[in-house]
């Protein structure tokens, strides 16, 4: 006669608590990153309201032979718009990094004037070292009377950068103004991939710390 086998259910090998906690944290991080990426992408569009009078071009890395691919994309996008709007005042904003031979503002000035833009229309902001300072120092120029007091701004940058710019602009200056955006495409694929991962983290950092 056969012995009755033990039919207790097999519990299997339990994962250590720390592994389950790590898996949950990883899942939460991926979800948060996905949400931030969606926010970044949703803000990267050209939106023109009314008739802007002050164009602000945000700087980017300068190479020994001139603007980087990202910066050239921004400048070429600005030039296309300026062809049909020759009366805009242009602010170029960006300081000089340790590895740059000139300030980003000066590089942009040289590029724009080299493509036919009247240098008298261009105002340089060459002290800033990040997006928050770009905005703060540009607004200081505006409040000092160095720019037209219309409050009608057109912000020019790479498409993935615009959502963070708008967040910080609205935080830096809660006054009355009209804000338009001009999105520059990114023609340099390695930079595009890099910014796909970097910009959501930069947006989170700016949300909590740039004040």
Provide a short characterization of the protein structure.
Residues 39-194 form the DUF218 domain. The chain is of the alpha/beta class and 211 residues long. It is 46% helix and 15% strand.
Structure, described:
Residues 39-194 form the DUF218 domain. It is built from six helices and seven strands, in the order αβββαβαβαβαβα. It is an alpha/beta fold and 211 residues long. The chain has a single domain, classed as Rossmann fold, CATH 3.40.50. The strands form two sheets. The protein has a five-stranded parallel beta sheet. A two-stranded antiparallel ribbon has the order 2-3. Helix 1 (17-42) packs across helix 6 and helix 5 (162-172) runs parallel beside helix 6 (189-209).
The biggest beta sheet, please?
5 strands, parallel
Q: How would you state the average pLDDT, rounded?
A: 88
N-to-C order of helices and strands: HEEEHEHEHEHEH
Distance between the termini: 82 Å
The number of distinct helices, counting runs of at least 4 residues, comes to 6
Number of domains: 1
Report Rg.
24 Å
β content, as a range?
Answer: 15-25%
GO biological process, one term: Gram-negative-bacterium-type cell wall biogenesis
Protein name: YdcF family protein
Domain DUF218: 39-194
InterPro entries: Cell_Envelope_Assoc, DUF218, Rossmann-like_a/b/a_fold
């Amino acid at each position: 006669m056969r012995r009755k086998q033990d039919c207790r259910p097999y519990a299997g090998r339990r994962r250590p608590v720390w592994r389950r906690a790590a898996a949950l944290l990883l899942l939460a991080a991926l979800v948060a990153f996905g949400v931030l990426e969606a926010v970044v992408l949703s803000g990267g569009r050209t939106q023109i309201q009314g008739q802007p009078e002050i164009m602000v071009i945000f700087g980017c890395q300068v190479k020994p032979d001139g603007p980087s691919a990202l910066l050239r994309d921004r400048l070429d996008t600005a030039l296309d718009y300026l062809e049909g709007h020759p009366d805009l005042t242009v602010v170029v904003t960006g300081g000089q990094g340790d590895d740059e031979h000139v300030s980003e503002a000066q590089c942009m000035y040289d590029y724009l004037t080299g493509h036919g833009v009247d240098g008298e229309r261009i105002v340089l902001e060459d002290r800033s070292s990040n997006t928050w300072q770009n905005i703060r120092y540009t607004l200081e120029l505006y409040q000092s009377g160095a720019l037209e007091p219309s409050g009608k701004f057109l912000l020019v940058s790479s498409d993935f950068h615009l959502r963070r710019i708008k967040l910080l602009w609205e935080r830096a200056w809660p006054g009355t103004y009209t804000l338009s955006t001009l999105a520059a495409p990114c023609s340099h694929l390695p930079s595009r991939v890099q910014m796909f991962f970097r910009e959501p983290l930069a947006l989170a950092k700016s949300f909590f710390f740039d004040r």
